[in-house]
């Protein structure tokens, strides 16, 4: 199993550009999530999904869209990039064992917005 | 809403020293608790987890954590650290029936040979 994969690994955008960060998992996990990691702020939840066709907002959803058309894929779209979105983005998935969300993380995408 | 605090932002230890990293959460009901580790340049990996039962949980690489419900704490411990334990450690909480997982701000551990 590849686990959770993310592409690209690095990306530089200009302010106002849009792009999609890809995330895929091959573990048949129902739960998937996106986090951003910033120095001194830990991981903050952007959006999450409990299954295909179901998504919801996390702590910091503004400026980001998600969709979940299949169990495997959970792309994150930046609508109009801003310098404040410079961050490392992690995708994670979870089998929701015993009602708890033990998560498996992807390798991350380092995004710089100039 | 659930929240989690990690009071130690940066810890420096010599090899063989004992480690205890603090984690406190705020939520009045039943919780699931996690510690994750992020080695330099790598993604987060699960170190250990508490769902229910024995409040002392053992994880990988000799780490353990104790859930103390009365103190809303889930501190991470290791009797003797190694240089390879240099990493950032994150505590996380997930309240039962709540679909979100909240992470602390992380503690950077530097182990000096």
Task: Please give a structural write-up.
The complex is a heterodimer of chains A (114) and B (113). Chain A has no helices and 11 strands. Chain A has 114 residues and is mostly beta strands. The mean pLDDT of chain A is 94. In chain A, strands 2, 4, 5, 6, 9, 10 and 11 form a 7-stranded mixed sheet that branches. Chain B is mainly beta and 113 residues long. Chain B is built from no helices and 12 strands. Chain B has strands at 3-5, 10-14, 19-21, 24-26, 31-38, 45-50, 56-58, 64-68, 73-78, 87-95, 102-103, 107-112. In chain B, a hairpin with a 5-residue loop joins strand 7 (56-58) and strand 8. The radius of gyration of chain B is 13 Å and the shape is globular. The mean pLDDT of chain B is 94. The A-B interface holds A 31, 33, 35, 40-45, 48, 50, 56, 58-59, 90, 92, 97-108 and B 6, 9, 32, 34, 36, 42-46, 49, 51-52, 90, 94, 96-97, 99-106.
Which structural class fits the helix and strand makeup of chain A?
mainly beta
What is the mean pLDDT of chain B? 94
C-alpha termini separation of chain B = 41 Å
Low-pLDDT stretches of chain B are none
Largest sheet of chain B, in brief, is: 6 strands, mixed
Give the helix proportion of chain B (percent range). under 10%
Q: N-to-C SSE series of chain B?
A: EEEEEEEEEEEE
Instruction: Estimate the strand proportion of chain B.
Output: over 45%
Q: What's the gyration radius of chain B in Å?
A: 13 Å
């Amino acid at each position: 199993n590849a686990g959770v994969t993310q592409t690209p690994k690095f990306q530089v955008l200009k302010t106002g550009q849009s792009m999609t960060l890809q995330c895929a998992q091959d573990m048949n996990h129902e739960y998937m999530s996106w986090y951003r990691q910033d120095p001194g702020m830990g991981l903050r939840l952007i959006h999450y999904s409990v299954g295909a066709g179901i998504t919801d907002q996390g702590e910091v959803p503004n400026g980001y869209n998600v969709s979940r058309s299949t169990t495997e894929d959970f792309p994150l779209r930046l609508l109009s990039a801003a310098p404040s979105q410079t961050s490392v983005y992690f995708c994670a998935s979870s089998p929701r064992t015993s009602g708890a969300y033990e998560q498996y993380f992807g390798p991350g995408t380092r995004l710089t917005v100039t | 809403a659930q929240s989690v605090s990690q009071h130690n932002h940066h810890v420096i230890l010599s090899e063989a020293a004992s480690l205890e990293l603090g984690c406190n959460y705020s939520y009045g009901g039943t919780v699931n608790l996690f510690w994750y580790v992020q080695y330099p340049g790598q993604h987060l990996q699960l170190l250990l987890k508490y769902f229910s039962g024995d409040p002392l949980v053992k994880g990988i690489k000799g780490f353990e954590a104790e859930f103390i419900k009365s103190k809303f704490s889930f501190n991470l411990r290791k009797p003797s650290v190694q240089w390879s334990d240099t990493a950032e450690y994150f505590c996380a909480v997930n309240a039962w029936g709540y679909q979100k997982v909240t992470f602390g701000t992380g503690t950077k551990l530097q182990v000096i040979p």
